[in-house]
Amino acid sequence: MATSVKPVEITKFSSGSRKPSPDLMAVEEPLEIRLGYGPVGDRQQKSLSVTMRTPGHDYELAIGFLFTEAIIDSYDQIESVKYCEDVGRQEEIENVVRVELRPEVNLDFDKFQRNFYTTSSCGVCGKSSIESVEVSCTKLSDQLEIESEIIPTLSEKLREAQQIFEHTGGLHAVGLFDSEGKLLLTREDVGRHNAMDKVIGACLFKKDIPLSNHIVMVSGRASFELVQKALRAGIPIMAAVGAPSSLAASLASDMNMTLLGFVRAQSFNVYCGEQRIQ
Fold first, then answer.
1. Can you list the domains of the chain with their CATH numbers?
2. ∠ at Cα 217 (67, 181), nearest 5°?
């Protein structure tokens, strides 16, 4: 079983002296996501993505990625999710996940024309256009309203739940909250987009999508891709410890999402969707 943390020996410099010291590092390894599809008598396989991720919750990451990239629309389209056992070396088995779709699922192969190579730093690269990303999102309703005093509490709740970050200081986190500010689920990863896919994948497994009465909190900045993934899951409120990018704020505004940044213990900024904050 792959681990998320690796013990290492470092040299620590402090006050003019140095000494060997044990430490922990967040693990980063590649994960290949493969897709099995087609009728029973003519099954096909396609490699969709290689993403640098922190091992753990790999099945959630795989199906979350397929959903947020609009390859699938629900968990009911999935027949099975498993590690590939025909990849050669034993240590590589848990770095390749194959998602088998049900035989009756018809795929839109135009969606495969995008480059699905991803990295922990940049997310999905080579998207054919911003419009192709926006088309998979639905404009949100104003149904959810929350009390303003809930927002400043989210950052600390997420920080307290970051178990691996506490030991390594090297991971992003995404937390899913209910409308009362209760933390329901959190995932950590070297890639912020991977952490989001893991959260959404976990909800897909439970068939809880869309998340129309939830808040999502991210430990860093709010990027365009994170907003797009949250919108795909129907999340109406997204909060971030850091700032949103201009493109993220524009997409959130166009889709009627409430986007919050610089969430602190005493304050936060609203970039769009203020009507949901009471």
1. 29-134 (3.10.20.10), 148-276 (3.40.140.10)
2. 115
Contact at 8 Å (CB) between 101 and 81?
no
Find out whether 154 and 184 touch, Cβ atoms under 8 Å: no
Tens digit of each residue's pLDDT (9 = 90 or more) over 193-203: 999 999 999 99
Q: What is the pLDDT of residues 245-270, one digit of tens each?
A: 999 999 999 999 999 999 998 899 99
Instruction: Quote the pTM value.
Output: 0.88
8 A C-beta contact, residue 13 and residue 105:
no
DSSP state of 207: T
Integer Cα distance of 252 and 237 in angstroms: 9
- The amino acid present at 92, given as its one-letter code, is E
3-state helix, strand, coil in the chain (%, to 5): 30, 35, 35
| Cα 47 to Cα 95: distance, rounded to the nearest angstrom | 13
Catalytic residues: 122
Rg, Å, the chain Cα set: 20
Give the separation between CA 223 and CA 128, rounded to whole angstroms: 18
For residue 29, the Cα-to-chain-centroid distance in whole angstroms is: 16
Q: In whole angstroms, how far apart are CA 198 and each of 155, 160, 224, 232, 238?
A: 19, 19, 18, 14, 16
